[in-house]
Amino acid sequence: MASTIAYCKKRQTHSSIKVQNLPRLLLLRTHSIFNFYLSFIVSCMLCFSLNLNQLVYADNDSPSFSIQSLETLMHNRVYLLNANFSYQFSQEAIEALEHGVPLLILVDIEILTPRWYWADKTIAELEQGYLLIYHALSESYVVNNLNSGTQTNFLHLKQALNSLSQIQELPILDANLLKEDKDYYLRVRTHLDIESLPAPMRPLAYISSDWSLSSDWYEWPLQK
Question: Are the C-beta atoms of 109 and 188 separated by less than 8 Å?
Answer without folding.
Answer: yes
